[in-house]
Amino acid sequence: MVRCSKYWLLGVGIIITLLNTAKAQTQTPKSNDTQKKIIKQGKVSGYFRTFFMTTQNEGMLKDWTALAVGGKLKYETARFKNFQLGIAYYTSHNVDVSNVEARDAGTDRRSRYERALFNITDADQRTVHLLGEAYLTYGQAKHAVSLGRMKLKSPLMNPQDGRMIPTLLQGLWYKNQLLKNTTFQLGWISHVAPRSFDNFVTMAESIGINSVGRNLNGSASGYRNQLTSKGLGIANLDYATKRWGAKVWNYYAENIFNTFYSEVYVKGDIQGLPWKLMGQVIQQNQLNNGGNKDVNQAYFQTPSSSLWGARLQVNPRKKLFISLNYNHIGKAGRFLFPREWGREPLFTFQRRERSEGMANTHAWTVGAIQTWDWDNDRKLVLKLGYGHYHRPLLDDAASNKYGLVSNIQSDLEVLYYFGGPLKGIRLEYLVVYKAPLGTTRPDPRYIINRVNMWNHSLVLNYRF
Fold it and tell me: Which domains does the chain have, with CATH numbers?
């Protein structure tokens, strides 16, 4: 695995040398005052996080529990002649309340969710340290370009910050919001630090760190460390008004695949009931041989894939939102996007559930979000979700990459934001239950951590 830490250390050293040289050559009382002002007016931010998670499986199948502590410390300078520097350090520590690498005796399966709190490539690494952000930005609030390591959010490539350390990217990013109601973004990503990982790796090296699943013929996929790509190009155009809006994103994974994402919405009001109707379409196409000439070592193994979705959201009372959602993945090929790069934006997405790797599926969900606000910034948010996921049979590897059974999912999420002298603290609890659809009982290997299970998460965050 090629790592890029040494290049960043070299880059930081060069920058420090240049700054010191420039300082020695131009230092005056006025320049000293300017430097002090830039540093003094900079912003320090971050968070401390404690994350407890446990999964309870049925009968004699093994349960898992994990506890992690960690956080983020970030410093960003004030702007000077439209330049700005930022740097952020992330860390996560395994308190080791149990062995998340332990396997179930009957199925030989390991934990599915708890392992993702830590570096899954190194079970013995108790503490993860990561220089996750180190960037230089030039521009203004509505027109800027950034170079370096950064945290970016898009529909398919995003921080997926549901564990300890988010997914972070390295590359070049440009954002323009000069036109009214319009956002244009363009970027090239060369490296990524997948969620909870301890370093940045190339885009090709990152694919398969979490899981590789099965080839179309049912054999184990072999693309891990066998793909070639120069990086990922991303382009975006958004247009939004009070009544309607649209967004398009294109992800060009050189030599592997191209993914086009589009989303539209319209808003209205019927006799005092606000509503919002949304639609989404994703079209994917294989590039060259999908990353490798050997089909069993390629990531994208079919010529194309497509999916579409719809959402109806209503707002029956103040701060209450109810949505009905549907997604369909077509028969042409699997919907694929590396899980190491982000969380899928499907309307039917529920936490602890993914549709990536599937073809020929139907899913529908219903969700509700209610918020209560009080004085002193106190807030309580309640989220409810229920969904049905109709998937191909387990032996249909071409349409079911990871061997997931059709299932239902129910989830409850409660978030409480403290106020007053405790402002910045947020307590979060999430409970998820999954059960299989149908009467056929699958092999225990496809039950453990997948259905007939409960997953609980309790998270304490303090942001400053």
Answer: 42-463 (2.40.160.10)
